[in-house]
Amino acid sequence: MSKKRSKARSRAVQAIYQWQMTGQDIVDINNHFIAEHPMTRVDIPYFQGLVRGVADQVYALDDEIAPFLDRDLQAVDPVERAILRLGTYELAQCPDIPYRVVINESVELAKSFGGEAGYKYVNSILDKVALKLRATEAQRKSGSN
Question: What is the value of pTM for the model shown?
Fold first, then answer.
């Protein structure tokens, strides 16, 4: 697991959160982050792909997340919503990244940015999303335990 990718995810969650809260153009937010935030140890192309991918596919991502929620997606804490969207995007679009890595990274982001127990909620939801989107991989892992 690359530290540069972890930092890219951290910045991406912040950018996605800003986009959710302000409705600003995602390209403007993307450019702002690169210009205004320390990005020296960030995988910038990965950051850009995550931010653009989540924005471009937000409705499809929300459709993947919604069945596993105990409330309307708009009622989920905005930080946790950004993390869930990011994690779901990686589960759906980045098959080269093991699903456990996606979930673990998302949990760490929730511990850093989310509410006190938010990481448990993120873990629970992304576990279910992973079982749907990565069923073969998840079954292989659980079958080997």
Answer: 0.94
